[in-house]
TrEMBL record:
Protein name (record): Uncharacterized protein
Pfam families, per the entry: PLDc_2 (PF13091)
Organism of origin: Maribacter cobaltidurans
PROSITE patterns, per database record: PLD (PS50035)
Stored InterPro entries: PLD-like_dom, PLipase_D/transphosphatidylase
Domain of life: Bacteria
Recorded GO MF terms: phosphatidyltransferase activity
GO aspect biological process, one term: cardiolipin biosynthetic process
Length: 397
């Protein structure tokens, strides 16, 4: 049973249900609410916690979560923490050792260098917390002050989903498999779980292990869209496959809106994205820039029926390099809630039009954007080429 068939098979039933019970699937935005939820989940854990994140920082937020995890371990809860060795490279050894000394099982995913491999192009990009196979938080939010916000700065714009449904059990199994280095090797087909009147699926993307579920889901959603697509995206540099799907969708007259970073933590990528503005505007895509904080969200709504939130960026690195995980929700009510949040964000954005683009697009700005695009594109080709070499090596063996 292929992925596309399963989605088409189940969505008809899901879309007929217009009233969802929100307690099963809850939209969460970055900021204090997300971290209060995370702390509450950890504090109520009775048996097992899995926390997997790309970045875990030694700041106020990181120490708050670490304190909760240590208290859970002292209650004899089994606590598993998986951090990316590159994303969390700044975490002091003393911080990690303290977690271990308190009984937490801690592992760093793939050091950049080992005796047999060069891992820089393949990172563990998950942002997941699962407790007792019952409740989970999954999205794009790392453990750091910038995602919670401070007195001096607003939180980065990002999203997560709290799952209080059977999908949490499936997610905990996947997290356990990744922690013990057997996760992406399992060919587990995506399953849609009942969540009240919604359907929820956990999607993996790990090209090296032939898992492209998130990329496939986005592509299929674009291809089969009938009315509208709205995307919030950081590091927006879609490769040929996703870019073609988006442009074909626009040609069919589907209203397509993207919310992108006016302020970015990686200015080179933001300028590379701006290089693509003219092409997308020519295809009648509406572009908005958020300037209130850094955009880090990875979320989309299609036809007010299908939604996805997770760690997957719309670029080649997420498609072919990093290990990503998203949740997809087939629910009219959830889609409407996410769409309403997008509208609130858009109301505070600046729209990019051909006229406004001409005003900022002097020759030096255009040249800088073009150079940025070429540099970022080359870097992504290099970073995604390395996992391809490993794939070919494994395939030949």
């Amino acid at each position: 049973m292929d992925y596309k068939w399963k989605i088409e098979k189940h969505t008809k039933t899901a879309f007929q249900n217009t009233k969802d019970n929100s307690k099963y699937v809850e939209l969460v935005r970055s900021g204090e609410d997300y971290f209060l939820r995370l702390e509450k989940l950890i504090d109520k854990a009775e048996k097992e916690i899995h926390l997997q994140t790309y970045i875990f920082e030694n700041d106020e937020t990181g120490n708050r979560i670490a304190s909760c995890l240590k208290k859970a371990a002292q209650r004899k809860v089994e606590v598993y923490v998986l951090l990316d060795a590159y994303g969390s490279a700044a975490l002091p050894n003393s911080f990690a050792q303290d977690l271990v000394q308190h009984g937490i099982l801690l592992r760093f995913f793939s050091p950049l260098f080992s005796l047999n491999n060069f891992y820089i192009g393949r990172r563990m990009h998950h942002k997941i917390a699962v407790v007792d196979e019952k409740i989970a938080l999954i999205g794009g939010i790392n453990i750091a002050d910038k995602y919670r916000g401070t007195k001096a700065s607003k939180p980065w714009l990002d999203y997560a989903v709290q799952l209080n449904c059977p999908a949490a059990k499936n997610l905990q199994i996947l997290c356990s498999d990744y922690f013990y280095k057997r996760g992406s090797s399992k060919k587990i087909p995506p399953v849609l779980h009942s969540a009240g009147r919604a359907l929820v699926g956990i999607l993996q993307n790990d090209w090296l292990q032939r898992k492209t579920e998130v990329c496939d889901a986005y592509t299929n959603a674009f291809i089969y869209a009938k009315e509208e697509i709205v995307i919030v995206s950081s590091y927006f540099l879609p490769g040929n496959r996703l870019a073609k799907a988006l442009k074909k969708t626009c040609k069919r007259g589907i209203k397509t809106t993207v919310v992108l970073a006016g302020i970015s933590d990686v200015p080179l990528v933001r300028r590379a994205t701006e290089h693509l503005y003219s092409s997308f505007l020519d295809h009648h895509m509406r572009i908005f820039e958020w300037n209130n904080s850094v955009v880090h969200g990875k979320a989309a709504v299609v036809d007010n029926k299908w939604s996805t939130i997770g760690s997957f960026n719309l670029n080649s690195l997420s498609c072919y390099g990093s290990i990503e995980m998203n949740v997809e929700v087939h629910s009219v009510n959830f889609a409407e809630s996410l769409r309403a949040d997008f509208e609130m964000v858009i109301s505070q954005c600046s729209e990019i039009t051909k006229g406004s683009l001409r005003q900022r697009a002097g020759i030096f700005n255009k040249l800088g954007n073009w150079i940025s695009y070429q540099m970022v594109r080359t870097a992504m080709l290099f970073l995604t080429f390395l996992p391809h070499l490993r794939f070919l090596k494994n395939y030949r063996l």
